[in-house]
Amino acid sequence: MTDFSWAQLEIVIKGKVVNESGAAIKNASVQIDIQNTRTNSEGYFYVRNQNFPAQLTVKSSLYDEYQDILLFPEKWKDTMTVFVVMAPKSTQLEEVTINANSKFWVYPRKQANVLDFKLEPNGNILLCCSDNHHYFLRHLNGSGDNVYETSIRKHPKQIRSDCNGQYHLVYNDSIYETSIIGESVGFFSPVPYSRAIGMLDNCSYADDTSIIIRTYMNQKQHLEYMLITKKTHVRKVIYVSEDRHKKRQLKDYERENKPTVQEILKQSDANHSDRLSNRKDDLKKAKDRWNTQQFYDLILLKPIYAPLFELNDSLIIFDHPNDSAIVFTKTGVRVRSFPISYQYFKDWKSELIPNMEKTAIYARFEKGGITSLRKINLMTGKPEEEVKIKEHIFPEHIQIQKDFIYYLYKDYLDLSMHYIFKQHLTNH
Questions:
Q1: pTM for this one?
Q2: 62: CB partners within 8 A, 6+ apart
Q3: For the chain, how long is the longest CA-to-CA vector?
Q4: Does a structural domain hold residue 270?
Q5: CB 3.0 to 4.6 Å from 335: which of 6, 104, 176, 327, for a disulfide?
Q6: Domain annotation covers residue 397
């Protein structure tokens, strides 16, 4: 966890900016947190800063923008040295060529509104859509051709997959598990939403021998991962994540502001004559308290983001509150850890997206509606290999398979319509 008392000390940051050949880049714009400066004729810059972690952004007209996160130095040091290597920008001709071939329709049926979709390991796509006021679950092959379809109830919220790879059709009141056999899809009996959603949300991984369940506690700021052995039913907590600073803030906020509207009105009723004379004041206080309570329940009680993913032959928990990624075997044995800091970038969307092959994971960033994905290096925790979704702003339901990014896009001329597209995973 960040040592906030140390984070307030002023640190001297000395840096140099060069190109890939090692030549100094002069007059480059350097921003660290809210501090701004420029490099001198030899590529050097000098800044004082006291707020850490701090975002470093370096810009120069002939080079791609450089971003990184600076963590506070070791406690006995008051100086930090930074070395920045900037890559040259692509030529305009290359950019035009890339953009001309970067976007593809996956399901170009204009009257079909795509509600949600799931990529399958074999390259097929399970599609939930409405078509001429009818709702369907459609199975597409890799080319986007319709293999088969099944009519469904009106308007599902989404398609969810559980940790066993089974698909579920989620409605506001119920959830249907699906069964895909050959060229047909069937549905099991519906289960009440309140009973089934917990298992979908909390089951993080499963194989033939064990299952891993996550559980939130203490105002959603404490998260436990528990491994359950299927044969013996033995339970073992393999990891705990906690945001203690946020917990203290929430407790203080709750103590000061939690009284409900009903409690306020009850207090008002205690003195009937005063309530009549100050009715407007009472209503205003009730409204303010209600808004405060809604802010607490809907905004402040956001659960900590420390997801578990299966990647290659391991399980990795990305513990963002504690700036670490922890690697486990599939039997729950801790192997190693590495630091992460990309979560401090201002445009990070608090979302990690693994590819279908379970070999790579990408952090999602968004700036001015433009979404970019950066592959996370699983040895260093650093984001790299950035690719932007340039053709559409605010893409939804992003998924990655092989060399493509799949996503839904809302038509700006008809906000009721969603279409599914894909683009190359690389900018080259």
A1: 0.80
A2: 88, 89
A3: 82
A4: yes
A5: 327
A6: no
